[in-house]
Amino acid sequence: MLTQPEFISHRDGRRDFLRAGVSAAALTGAGLLPLAGLAQRAPATTVAAASAPPVLTRRIPSTGEVLPAIGLGTFLTFDVLPGQPRQHLREVMQRFWEAGGRVLDTSPLYGTGEISVGDHAASLGIAEGLFMANKIWSTGEFLADESHASRSLAQSQNRLWRERMDLMQVHSLTNIEFVLPYLKAWKKEGRIRYTGITHYEDAYLPLLAAWIERGQPDFVQVQYSIASRRAEERVLPLAAERGVAVLTNLPFEKARLFALVEGRPVPDFVKEIGVQTWAQYFLKWVISNPVVTCALPSTSNPAHMAENMEALRGPLPDAAMRARMLKHMEGIPGFDKVTQMPWYPGKRYQGLIARNQAALRART
């Protein structure tokens, strides 16, 4: 296991990881970095108490800016129908912040997600301290028209109570031929800080890789979990080679991994690296890959939020431990079918998205 991560170049660590097949030496350099970059966003005392272990962080390759290695996703979980209770989401964000979380990923496509995030971030006084990753899904009135994208950006700024976005991403590669160049123009003009591209399905991995090469974004967001590892074949190595930061979505496979292990104890062998819960198990496996800049689990449950953030501290699994963790999961019946299970088993998120999807099914 890892005990004392060395302070080496993050990019070197990423390359070593790929050359050595997740070597222990590479993983040793994957975890802890100084929090100086975060200090510009928030007082150090809000990142970690003096007695707490340091937060696991990574650097953005293009700038060296430091980010915590676990963030917060908001798809479905932050989409609440107008007028319905949402105080629980404020507590989720508060616990996320107090545990050292800073990277928050949302989208105008996520129903009322942006509104929930913006209102609670403002009331908590943390809006400007968050590293806000947002998205553009735009086609325009005509070919190469910027109007839809500009309106989307302005709407997101208003909803999120932000003058400038940290990261704007081409959502699911939609109209990327024109949207990514506009994002680059916005970055040059100071309207955003970083550009990115995203997708959540393995079928689009070749296209993601092609746009890493062709478009040279600052970030790529890709599906990656202990059950979905195809990003290791091309996208992650290419991101390491090109100096592109990596956000990973679906570390819990939309709660399907938890359904698979329900009633099963966490194996004793991972307790030597401080893993006590399945959330820690799945998250530490993801972020122990040094190519990953930040993993984005999502939840609407404050207790689950606190549990997730426990993975942001302490040792990470080395190559041997990662292999053992994967082998253990492969021994659980149904693991090879996890990605074919229905989303969020046993959970219901009653927001605009769910309401409209139900209405559409009724009509068709």
From TrEMBL:
<dbReference type="Pfam" id="PF00248">
    <property type="entry name" value="Aldo_ket_red"/>
</dbReference>
<feature type="domain" description="NADP-dependent oxidoreductase">
    <location>
        <begin position="70"/>
        <end position="321"/>
    </location>
</feature>
<dbReference type="InterPro" id="IPR006311">
    <property type="entry name" value="TAT_signal"/>
</dbReference>
<protein>
    <submittedName>
        <fullName>Aldo/keto reductase</fullName>
    </submittedName>
</protein>
<dbReference type="InterPro" id="IPR023210">
    <property type="entry name" value="NADP_OxRdtase_dom"/>
</dbReference>
<dbReference type="InterPro" id="IPR036812">
    <property type="entry name" value="NAD(P)_OxRdtase_dom_sf"/>
</dbReference>
